[in-house]
Structures are given as structure tokens and as C-alpha cells.
């Protein structure tokens, strides 16, 4: 909104042309969302604490969680989304269809996550909505969002799957594009949700993936950079970098309050919304496989749960002491801060590998 208002005065004040640059608006989106989260963070946490909007702790989890984390406010994702939406609505080009597709995903998954958090708080348990209900709603959201994308942002590369490290290797998914997109979006949403189990554990990897894809979306939407890097050029997709800049700012602000020991938890409100939107970004920029690399930590967490469930159902034995895998290392005696920092290091390495795929072709 502010972006369009400023543009209307460009002919009068030529210095306002600087706001046409994606890099400037990405930076402004980041600092705006960061400022909003900083501004309302403390009163938000105090209000939630006073209203006993606190996080129910898993009774089968590490013993010290019951002692240290009980009574900590949850639904901090609301704080993230307030900052994110402020940055996006002020500084992005709202005539760009990709922005509205991403707004749909982050808002829809955020509402689902908020309902899940509400159920946990109301009944004072960590179960929330049923797994079946959550998956069904996620699939519906993903289908609707993918249809929006195909109707309003159709381009010749949309249905192609590109492989990193190769110049011309691609597969046209055809009709399979929709189920493939649903798998990526739902999988990404749940993977971030599963990772969000320790103070700050999911927040930093989300920031890293968002940073990588802010760069990827910028070069993908630039005809010269995309040609140089031999990646598909997609007109208008550079605007996604403004959205991701706002994600980075909102998550940085939230990390201030979520750093160990956390004053507030993200909850499903934040993790489902952020994960779903990152999955959508991967599809929009046509870097789905790079998303799996840069977000490899999320993939690892999700796979650990899948392996644990299948192993227990088939053999009656557990592969890990507890799933997701970050709890396995806690059960082995690692301190929470040790698990978090080491997993952050893994996320940084994977992010660098993901970015390297842009040039190694």
C-alpha cells in the first residue's frame, strides 16, 4: 500500500525512484516486520501470560521440559504473522499475483495452526486437532493455493521440475504438477512444525531458508542474472523477495524472545504458516529440490518421525529414543542449547550447499 502511494509521487520527487528497487523494498520489509515484532513483543507476551495462554508440555518428552517450559506462553506465531503482514502489505507490489498466493498460504495455514493451538490450550494437552483432520485441511489449502497459482500466475515453466547441478535437466510434470505441489507444501508445513520443539530450533533455519530464497527469487526474476546462472527466468517472481525479507525480519524479532530460555513459543500458528509458505516459495521459484537441500534440517526431522512410526508399527521397536530426532539427542544427555546450536550449524551448511547449486551447473 505504501509502495503504491510513494510511486504516485515519483514524478514530483525523483529521489523516490529508489523505492522501485527490489533490494530496497526487501530491506524495508525486513526492518518493518522486525520493528513491529520488537514493538509489540513484550506487551504481547505479558498479555498471553496473564490470560494463561500457555503451552501444554508433552508428558512423554524429556523430563526437564516439564520443569523448565511449563507456563510459557504459546501462539507466538501470531506475533510473527503481524510483523510479516505489515512488512508485506506496506512494501510489496500488491498487483503481483505471487504475493497474494503467498498471503493466502501463510494466512490459511496460520489459521489452521491457531485452531490447533486453541484446542491444546482449551483442553490442556499437547494433542490439539487430530492428525487426520490437520492433514485433510492442509491438503485442501494446498490444492486451493495451487489452483490460484495456476490461474493467476501461469507461465511456461510452472509445471517443470528442474534439477540442480544440471544445465538442462528437467521434467514436465503436466497434470501431476498439482499433487506434486500439494506434497511439497504440506510436507514443508509439517516438517517445520515437527522441528519447532526446542527454543529457537526452528526459527533460525527458517531465517536461513528465507534468506536463500530471497536471493533465489531475486535472480530468478532478473533476466540477466537468470541467464548468467542458467536458471529459468520467471517474470515478476522477484517480488517474492519482499515477502521473504518480511519473513526474515519477523523471525529475527521473534528470535529475540524465543532464544533460550524462550519467553514465548511459536506454536503451530507460526510453524505451519511459515513451513507452508516456504513450500509455496519453492514451487513459485521452481527450486523445489533446492528447497529440500536448504531446508534439509526440516527434512531430517520429518524423516526421523516417519522412520520411528514405521519401525514401531512393523517391528515393535523404536529406532530413536524419541522422535523428532532433536528429542533423541536430548534423551542421550545433550543439553538443549547444545542440540539447538549444533542443528543450527547443520542448517547453515545445508543453506550454503543449496546456494552453491545456483552456480554449479
What is the fold's blueprint, element by element?
Blueprint: H1 2-7, H2 22-50, H3 63-68, H4 77-91, H5 97-123, H6 131-152, E1 160-162, E2 170-172, H7 177-195, H8 203-220, H9 223-229, H10 240-258, H11 267-284, H12 288-294, H13 296-315, H14 325-331, H15 336-356
Antiparallel strand pairs: 1-2
Helix pairs in contact: 2-4, 2-10, 4-5, 4-10, 4-11, 5-6, 5-11, 6-7, 7-11, 7-13, 8-10, 8-11, 8-15, 11-12, 12-13, 12-15
Q: Structural class, from secondary structure content?
A: mainly alpha
Radius of gyration: 20 Å
> What's the total number of strands?
2
Counting structural domains, the number is 1
Oligomer: single chain
Distance between the first and last residues' Cα: 39 Å
Q: In terms of per-residue confidence, which ranges show pLDDT below 50 for 5 or more consecutive residues?
A: none
Instruction: Describe the strand arrangement of the main beta sheet, using strand numbers.
Output: 1-2
Rounded mean pLDDT is 90
Which overall shape is indicated by the principal axes computed on the Cα atoms?
Answer: globular
